[in-house]
Design goal:
Enzyme class: hydrolase
Mean pLDDT: 81
Radius of gyration: 22 Å
Strand content: 15-25%
Protein name: RNA helicase
CATH superfamily of the largest domain: P-loop containing nucleotide triphosphate hydrolases
Pfam families: DEAD, Helicase_C
GO molecular function: ATP binding; hydrolase activity; RNA binding; RNA helicase activity
Structural class: alpha/beta
Distance between the termini: 29 Å
Catalytic activity: ATP + H2O = ADP + phosphate + H(+)
């Protein structure tokens, strides 16, 4: 399948071309026709594989084919917050775990919606932007991209009603469960007047799908297609992974050596907010243009830091895991795990910020005896990806802690969940797609035209 032969609306094809997409990635090639056919979908794909376009484009096509959103249900009242003119009845709801990812998805939606008459809005946590987001949904919007907590807040305020939702996407579903959002997600899907299974089309996308996520899929999806692109939970072939033994007191010196030897945008991961602030201050004092993002930063500060990083104004960004999943920062040349995460899942998502869209990238990780708990999984991942495994890492794996069971949790196969659970349970399935993982599409963050997204010249609703 190519974009031109996909059967998508001509306006969408034009917007795809303006976005710089030349040919679909594997996940797009399989997911787009599946979603356009109206099937529910659970997709496992590597980070950087173009998942956003894979779910936004085919849903937009179906929305255009519908001729417009359904009329708002009668509320029995013409006053108050439940009025049509004070709230929105979206046709398409997209849930994401973080405000950064929600903003990124919204940016892609705006580009693909250009000239279609379809309006989108994004809502996420942060007291500094509540009023602006309330104004955005006062007049009907057709697509809402949201984090679960802020969406529930707007539902409780009567500003968003879900009775008209015909399409639902959960992006980075594993991350949402990791962050404890399952109760909020279930409340949104099961207790807020959203059409039930079979009356809406539901899509779940993530880089990993452990058993917990597949159980969630069985509750939310109807007779779904399971799409696994590449080896689930692995890394792309475009990333060169390096593991360096480094004691804690030598990490700053080694980081400076890396920054001096590898040019380009560098993303440095640490575990805590305090460590992020301290490392940013150290780099600034040594003359390096650096910034940091973490949970204590305001939304404006985080957006400004990301914008400066993307533009190269501050080519070094120190981050906690708030930026690890879902964020699409183009042209990151180097990811440094200054502090290794405790799980291989987080390692995969961190280094997936480089080597995106077919570009080459380098991921360097500092490791020492404190990181024994991840060593066995790390060796397995490096071997699967054909990467060099240092001899000292094998030695560390043979230590007493590792022989006794290491971290005490299941191995990677059980956590990443690369198999469709319905095969084991004997439940019937109607189809399954698979493919090799690579990413070839180029993306840009800038929408075109600006102004009113119900622009003329398209299929205005």
């Amino acid at each position: 399948m190519t974009f031109e032969t996909s059967g998508m609306d001509k306006i969408l094809l034009r917007n795809v071309a303006l976005s710089g997409y030349r040919k679909p990635t594997p996940v797009q090639r399989h997911a787009i026709p599946t979603v356009m056919a109206g099937r529910d979908l659970m997709s496992c794909a590597q980070t950087g594989s173009g998942k956003t376009a894979a779910f936004v484009l085919p849903v937009l096509h179906q929305m255009l084919q519908m001729g417009g959103p359904a009329p708002a249900p009668s509320t029995g009242s013409t006053s108050g917050l439940s009025s049509r003119f004070r709230c929105s009845y979206p046709t398409y709801l997209i849930l994401a775990p973080t405000r950064e990812l929600a903003s990124q998805i919204f940016s892609e939606c705006r580009k693909f919606c250009y000239g279609t008459g379809i309006r989108a809005a994004v809502i996420y946590g942060g007291s500094e932007n509540t009023r602006e987001q309330l104004r955005a949904v006062e007049n009907q919007v057709d697509i809402v991209v949201a984090t679960p907590g802020r969406l529930l807040d707007f539902i409780e305020r009567g500003r968003i009603l879900l009775a008209n939702v015909r399409f639902l996407t959960l992006d980075e579903a594993d991350r949402m469960l990791d962050m404890g959002f399952e109760p909020q997600i279930r409340q949104i899907v099961e207790a807020c007047d959203m059409p039930v299974i079979g009356e809406r089309q539901t899509l779940m996308f993530s880089a990993t799908f452990p058993r917990e996520i597949q159980r969630l899929a069985s509750d939310f999806l109807h007779d779904y297609i399971f799409l696994a692109v590449g080896r689930v939970g692995s890394t792309t072939d475009f990333i060169v992974q390096r593991i360096e033994f480094c004691e804690d007191h030598l990490k700053r010196e080694m980081l400076l050596d890396l920054l001096n030897s590898i040019p380009g945008l560098t993303l440095v991961f640490v575990d805590t907010k305090r460590a992020a602030d301290a490392l940013e201050d150290f780099l600034l004092r040594h003359g390096y243009a650096a910034s940091s993002i973490h949970g204590d930063r305001s939304q404006r500060e985080r957006e400004d830091a990301l914008a400066a990083f993307r533009s190269g104004q501050t080519p070094i960004l120190v981050a906690t895991d708030v930026a690890a999943r879902g964020l699409d920062i183009p042209n990151v040349a180097h990811v440094v795990n200054y502090e290794l995460p405790s799980t291989i899942d987080d390692y995969v998502h961190r280094i997936g910020r480089t080597g995106r869209a077919g570009n080459q990238g380098i991921a360097t990780s500092f490791a020492n005896e404190k990181n024994r708990g991840i060593v066995r999984d790390l060796i397995e991942l490096l071997q699967e990806a054909g990467q060099e495994v240092p001899s000292w890492l094998y030695t560390m794996c043979q230590g007493p802690a590792m022989r006794s069971g290491g971290s005490g949790r299941p191995g990677r196969g059980g956590r990443f969940g690369g198999r469709d659970m319905r095969r084991e349970s004997g439940a019937p399935r109607r189809g399954q797609f698979g493919g090799a993982a690579s990413a070839t599409a180029a993306t840009r963050d800038e929408p075109w035209g600006g102004g009113n997204w119900r622009a003329s010249g398209g299929s205005a609703w």
